[in-house]
Structures are given as C-alpha cells and as structure tokens.
Amino acid sequence: MGNKYSGLQIGIHWLVFLLVIVTYCAMELRGFFPRSYRPGFNMVHVSCGITILALMVTRLLVRLKYPTPPIVPKPKPMMTGMAHLGHLVIYLLFIVLPIIGLVMMYNRGNPWIAFGIVMPHATEANFDIVDMLKSWHVTLAKLGYFVIGLHAAAALMHHYFWQDNTLLRMMPRKRS
C-alpha cells in the first residue's frame, strides 16, 4: 500500500470539489442575471447534482475496495474518530442532497431538464412533498458550506499544524 490514495480516488475527490463549486455558484449567482437565464442555471445545478451523486456513490464503492493510506505520523485515536465522522457526514450530505433534489424535481409535476434532456416527472404535482423537500434541500445545502469549510480547515491543520501527510495523500501525483 502506498502513501497516497489511488489516482481514481484523487480524481473523483477533486472533480466532486469542482462540481460542488459549480453547483453552489449556479444557485447563488443566478439572481445577478436576467430571469430568462434561470432555466439554464437550474439545468447546470441539477446536472452537476446528479453527477455529484454518481461520483459520490462511485467514490464510496472505491473506498470500500481500496484501503485508506496511513497518516504519518499516526494521529491520536480521537482525531481518527473525528476524521471518520467528518467523512461520514460528507458522504451522507453529498449523496442525500442530490437524491432530495431529484425527488423534489420529479414531484413538481412539470418537465425539468438535466444534461439537456427532459427528465421524467410525476403526472400530478405534489406541492406538499415539494415544499418539504425544498426546505430540507436548502437547509442541507447551507450545512454544506459549514461541512466543506471544516473539511478544508482540517486538511490545512493537518498539513501546517500537525505536519502529517493527510493533505498530501489526496494531492495529485506530480508528472515525471
């Protein structure tokens, strides 16, 4: 076992990172554009969300198959436990958040677009479900800012304060 994650794991990690940025920006920045641009922003948001879901499930399966490279020097058990909890929250958040979004879009009862394709929808809208799911989707998305910030702060603390290889394990390999 090496001292880094596999190239596939590293690639998925950074691709999800970029997609999360695009997904959040699609919603946060849409208000700065004319209302006629909203369907485009929504399509980008939904398409990125679906891609994040697929990549997170793939990443989880890959993580179950390949062992995690060791942290050197080895952290205290409490730190390891906190890291496992943090990763569990990240996996749950970025799997559950897109699923809620998809169920919400389906239950609106009108056509919606992902990847430029009209997606299936319920024959009749259920706005009680849509409103409840939207509330959860927005709340979890806001929680995402906090979780992402903690994740980044923890990686930087490991690198600069505890001076271990946690951050380096997820950095892309240098080309020779």
TrEMBL record:
Family recorded in the similarity comment: Belongs to the cytochrome b561 family.
Cofactor(s) needed, names only, are:
heme b
Its subcellular locations are:
Cell membrane
- Please report the stretch or stretches of sequence annotated as the Cytochrome b561 bacterial/Ni-hydrogenase domain: 5-172
Look up keyword Flavoprotein and say if it applies.
no
Pfam families from the xrefs?
Ni_hydr_CYTB (PF01292)
- The residues that cross the membrane are 12-29, 41-62, 82-106, 143-162
Question: What gene codes for this chain?
Answer: cybB
The UniProt entry lists membrane topology as: Multi-pass membrane protein
User: What are its GO cellular component terms?
Assistant: plasma membrane
Top-down, what is the taxonomic lineage of the species of origin? Bacteria, Pseudomonadati, Pseudomonadota, Gammaproteobacteria, Enterobacterales
Does the keyword section mention Electron transport? yes
The protein here is known as Cytochrome b561
Q: What is its main location?
A: membrane
Q: Which UniProt keywords apply?
A: Cell membrane, Electron transport, Heme, Iron, Membrane, Metal-binding, Transmembrane, Transmembrane helix, Transport
